[in-house]
Write a structure and sequence with these properties.
Elements: E1 4-9, E2 19-25, E3 28-34, H1 52-56, E4 66-68, E5 77-79, H2 82-100, E6 105-109, H3 116-130, E7 134-136, H4 142-152, E8 168-172, H5 176-179, H6 184-192, E9 196-200, E10 213-215, H7 222-235, H8 241-247, E11 248-249, H9 251-258, H10 263-270, H11 274-286, E12 290-294, H12 304-317, E13 327-329, H13 340-344, E14 355-357, H14 361-368, E15 376-380, H15 384-387, H16 391-398, E16 404-409, E17 421-424, E18 433-435, E19 442-446, H17 459-469, H18 481-493, H19 504-510, E20 512-514, E21 535-536, H20 540-544, E22 577-580, H21 596-602, E23 606-609, H22 611-616, E24 624-628, E25 633-640, E26 648-650, E27 686-691
Parallel strand pairs: 6-15, 7-14, 8-9, 8-12, 9-10, 11-21, 12-13, 15-16, 16-17, 22-26, 23-25
Antiparallel strand pairs: 1-2, 2-3, 4-5, 4-17, 18-19, 19-20, 22-27, 23-26, 24-25, 24-27
Helix pairs in contact: 3-17, 4-12, 7-10, 7-11, 7-12, 14-16
Bound molecules: ligand MGD (2 copies), iron/sulfur cluster and molybdenum atom.
């Protein structure tokens, strides 16, 4: 029997965007492993994706369209044909559009796949043509993206391997052992050669355990910490005044503001000893090259945007931008932005519908968004009932009798179970796509390895049948996958030299192709693509938007969902804890959190509690505890550990309520918006703790 070797790429939300290989016999994948030729992957996959065939061939994969027959959420389904399903969707939508207009339809999607076709084009073309509501995709890193672009003009990153050149690496609110694993061999090699590694995180993460120094500030205080470091560096005269004058706008204004952040005040805000802040400031100012590496967890709070602005100022103070092994590492996304017109066909569509912020989904479904109210929700590539903030409200919204919900999924998720129609989706082994990455600069083509399981369809195929149903005959709604990719590549290449010499044919041939990056070291020419061409420590753009134009810090506290709720003093301020819900090691948000082998490795849903906080409520490791606030409650197994700061509890994101006791930490999470770009604020959430009496049996 001949074995086919098919090369593909990991579609999941992770900066590493690994290449992989599937071996296929008789249309069935029999072997799966890392692409030994992919430069970032280097022949190994993470714990989540190594057992990928268990994901693809999971016995719970959805294989046919389903129509709800019982009450919402009852789990009573009737299999139907694709024709019936699409006909019913079209019929319902035509009625809704006639009564309320197309904006009453809200597509909701996020990062189930990051592919150009199955995410990017699918998010645009059909929905734009329909005139549906636009979704503000702000759940992940909106504030950091905005802040980095406002300050530096673009998101650019050195290759992971360049960390070899760093003398000091500060990993700030980021846990790459779990969330960017292919950075780690480079970091550990550098450390062996003498690079110092500092991790700043309220939790002793897997990454912190490998560092030379772990600093654990209070959550949401990092903006003040960065400004305190800056203030101290200036006080010591260790900043580079000439560099700042040459390359920055607003240095004098920022310098004046730094006076508001003396060490004593910053120590009080951050909960760190004055000596530690002073030591960190000196270390940073004297080490060169020095790299600060951040991701998005750091900024999922009320201060997120300003925190990132303040951190971006530090490499300017120390003259570290443009140096190999120095500067800021955030994301490589700025090197290549797909041509927006080719992706979304905006000019051939009606004006974009009104925008709905995805962080407010529950509130939006329950009336915050009206005129017109949301009458139909179409979910794909996301699992909002498990991953959105204030998820109890999302579930409540999804239970609305008059809401027509369609979910396109691989699995019967917490969201799908509340739908009216569930449609089966293909996995990455079953469809075509093209991926850029946010941690490196290779493009990788995904060749389908096996035919679609059962009757499942890819996102793009689904858009095509929906277009036909709605009578949309535009050729750009009916192209083949490769035709779409070719069109977007060609349109983008016409404007972006990063794609010089890169064609679809070449991608299909070589699979992984590097972008042409003019300057391997970001900003080595000291040109920053901001309006002024310099680093904008003071941002006029932000001032024009009514935002603080200088980096700063604000003391804003989560209500804990107590707005307008009578709680009879049950939640006193002095007993509030901050809930962090970071990435789990074995799942990608809620993806894989239904896979038996990975569930075993991750263990029971738990919450980490500092021994002092645990003692206050007589809690011991292994006890069932309740986290509670005005939004909801969630019961978890206690892990008492000094691996979290006092006053902080931590429980990883991504659990499925329906595989546990119904509620997850997301039921407690803040759905208020952060300081910039409509950002989510998961890590600002305040909760209260108690021990549950031992349950019987
Ligand atoms: N294994 C795994 N990998 C993933 C994901 C996953 O779910 N699992 N998710 C993917 C996605 S969607 C994303 S966006 C990235 C995120 O990648 P990361 O940002 O690295 O991941 P997070 O765990 O969200 O956040 C990182 C750290 O921020 C800390 N943190 C929270 N609040 C603060 C604060 O106020 N100050 C400081 N200093 N630290 C704080 C948390 O304790 C956490 O350890 O990872 C991607 N990769
Ligand atoms: N508490 C807490 N919650 C968080 C966060 C946090 O830090 N704390 N982080 C937030 C962040 S950073 C992010 S990015 C979001 C991520 O949240 P989501 O974008 O919802 O990501 P996943 O949980 O991975 O769910 C993706 C779903 O898409 C499905 N899927 C995969 N591929 C396809 C496909 O090709 N087609 C279709 N139709 N479906 C597909 C998968 O089966 C899966 O159910 O979560 C957010 N939620
Ligand atoms: S999740 Fe990240 S590390 Fe794991 S295989 Fe995918 S891209 Fe690679
Ligand atoms: Mo994310």
């Amino acid at each position: 029997m001949t074995t086919q070797i098919v090369r593909g790429v990991c579609p999941h939300d992770c900066p590493d965007t690994c290449g992989f290989v599937t071996e296929v016999e008789n249309g069935r994948a029999i072997n799966f492993y890392a692409d030994p030729n992919h430069p970032t992957t280097q022949g190994w996959l993470c714990a989540k994706v190594r057992p990928y065939l268990d994901h693809v061939y999971h016995p719970d994969r959805l294989t046919q369209p389903l129509r709800r027959v019982g009450p919402k959420g009852s789990g009573q389904w009737q299999p139907i044909s694709w024709e019936e399903a699409i006909g019913e969707i079209g019929g319902r939508w035509r009625t809704i559009i006639a009564e309320h207009g197309a904006e009453a339809i809200l597509p909701y999607s996020y990062s189930g796949t990051l592919g150009l076709l199955q995410m990017g084009v699918v998010n645009g073309r059909f929905w734009n043509k329909l005139g549906a509501s636009q979704l503000e995709r702000t759940i992940c890193g909106a504030a950091a993206e905005f802040a980095v672009e406002a300050t530096l003009g673009s998101r650019r990153n050195q290759p992971y391997a360049d960390v070899q050149h760093s003398q000091l690496v500060i990993i700030w609110g980021h846990n790459p052992v779990s969330t960017a694993p292919h950075f780690m061999p480079h970091l550990l090699q550098a450390r062996k050669n003498g690079t110092q590694v500092v991790v700043i995180d309220p939790r002793r993460t897997r990454t912190a355990k490998l560092a030379d120094w772990h600093i654990a500030p209070k959550p949401g205080s990092d903006g003040a910490l960065a400004l305190g470091i800056a203030q101290h560096i200036v006080m010591l005269g260790l900043h580079d005044e000439a560099w700042l004058a040459q390359n920055c706008v607003g240095w004098q204004a920022l310098k004046a503001r730094l006076n508001e952040y003396p060490l004593v005040r910053v120590a009080a805000i951050t909960g760190l000893p004055v000596e530690d802040i002073a030591r960190l400031a000196r270390l940073y100012a004297e080490a060169t090259p020095a790299l600060i590496k951040i991701a998005d967890g750091l900024q999922r709070n009320f201060n997120g945007g300003q925190t990132v602005r303040a951190i971006c100022a530090l490499p300017a103070l120390a003259g570290q931008y443009g140096r190999v092994g120095g500067g800021l590492a955030y994301s490589t996304s700025g090197y290549l932005q797909w041509d927006s017109e080719a992706v979304g066909k905006w000019s051939e569509c009606p004006p974009p519908g009104r925008s709905v912020n995805m962080n407010r989904l529950g509130a939006a479904l329950l009336g915050e968004v009206d005129n017109p109210p949301i009458q139909s929700l179409f979910v794909y590539g996301s699992n909002p009932a498990a991953i959105a903030p204030n998820a109890g409200r999302v579930a409540e919204g999804l239970r609305r009798e008059d809401l027509f919900t369609v979910v396109h999924e691989l699995f019967m998720t917490d969201t799908a179970v509340l739908a009216d129609i569930v449609l089966p989706a293909t996995s990455q082994l079953e469809h075509v796509d093209l991926h850029k990455a946010y941690g490196h600069t290779y493009l990788t083509y995904n060749q389908p390895a096996i035919p679609p399981l059962g009757e499942s369809k890819s996102n793009w195929e689904l858009m095509q049948v929906l277009a036909t149903e709605m009578g949309f005959t535009e050729p750009w709604l009916h192209q083949s996958a490769d035709e779409v990719l070719d069109e977007v590549l060609t349109a983008t290449a016409a404007k972006n030299p990063a794609l010089a010499g890169i064609t679809l044919a070449r991608l299909k041939q070589e699979n992984t192709v590097p972008l042409t990056i003019e300057l391997a070291v970001p900003f080595a020419d000291f040109h920053f693509p901001t309006p002024s061409g310099k680093i904008e420590l003071y941002s006029q753009t932000m001032a024009n938007m009514g935002l603080d134009p200088l980096p700063g810090w604000q003391n804003e506290v989560d209500s804990g969902g107590q707005d307008g709720v009578v709680l009879n003093g049950r939640f006193p301020d002095e007993e509030a804890l901050t809930l962090l819900s970071p990435a789990s090691h074995h799942f990608t948000t809620s993806t894989f959190a239904n896979q038996p082998d990975l569930l075993v490795r991750e263990g029971e849903p738990f919450v980490e509690i500092h021994p002092d906080d645990a003692a206050r409520y007589q809690i011991q490791s292994g006890d069932w505890v309740r986290l509670e606030n005005g939004r909801s409650f969630c019961d978890l197994r206690a892990k008492v550990t000094d691996g979290v700061r006092r006053g902080v509890v931590a429980s990883p994101k991504g659990r499925w309520g329906r595989l546990g006791n119904g509620r997850t930490v997301n039921w407690l999470a803040s759905d208020a918006l952060g300081d910039m770009a409509g950002q989510s604020t998961f890590h600002s959430s305040r909760v209260w703790l108690c021990r549950l009496e031992p349950t019987k049996g």
